[in-house]
Amino acid sequence: MLNKTLTEQSQALAKGEVSSLELTQAYIQRINQLEPQVNAFISQTPEQALAQAKAADERRAKGDAHALTGIPLAHKDIFCTQGVRTSCGSKMLDNFIAPYNATVIERFNAVGAVSLGKTNLDEFAMGSSTESSFYGPTRNPWQLDRVPGGSSGGAAAAIAANFAAGATGTDTGGSIRQPAAFCGISGIKPTYGRVSRWGMIAYGSSLDQGGPMAKSCSDLALMLEVMASFDAKDSTSVDQPVPAYSQGLTQSIKGLRIGLPKEYFGEGLDPRIADQVQAAVKTLETQGAIIKEISLPLTHLAIPAYYIIAPAEASTNLSRYDGVKFGHRCDNPKDLQDLYLRTRQQGFGTEVKRRILIGTYALSAGYYDAYYRKAQQLRRMIKNDFAAALQEVDVIAGPATPNLPWTLGAKSQDPVAMYLEDLYTIAVNLAGLPGMSVPCGFVDGLPVGLQLIGNYFQEQQLLTLGHQYQLQSDWHLQQPELSTSGGN
Amino acid sequence: MQWEIVIGLEVHVQLATQTKIFSGASTAFGAEPNTQACAIDLGLPGTLPVFNSEALRKAVQFGLAIEAEIGKRSVFDRKNYFYPDLPKGYQVTQMDFPIVGQGQLEITLEDGSSKVIGVTRAHLEEDAGKSLHEDFEGMSGIDLNRAGTPLLEIVSEPDIRNAKEAVAYLKKIHAIITYLGISDGNMAEGSMRCDVNISVRPKGQAEFGTRCEIKNVNSFKFVEKAIHCEVQRQIDIIEDGGKIVQETRLYDPDKDETRSMRSKEVANDYRYFPEPDLLPVEIDDAYVQAIREQLPELPDAKIERFISQYQLSKYDATQLAASRLLADYFEQVVSACGQAKLAANWVLVELLGQLNRSSTELSDNPISAEQLGQLIQRIQDGTISGRQAKQVFEAMYQGEGSPDAIIEAKGLKQVSDTGALEAMIDEIMSKNPAQVADYRGGKDKLFGFFVGQVMKASKGQANPAVVNDLLKAKLQG
Question: What is the CATH number of the domain that holds A12?
Answer without folding.
Answer: 3.90.1300.10
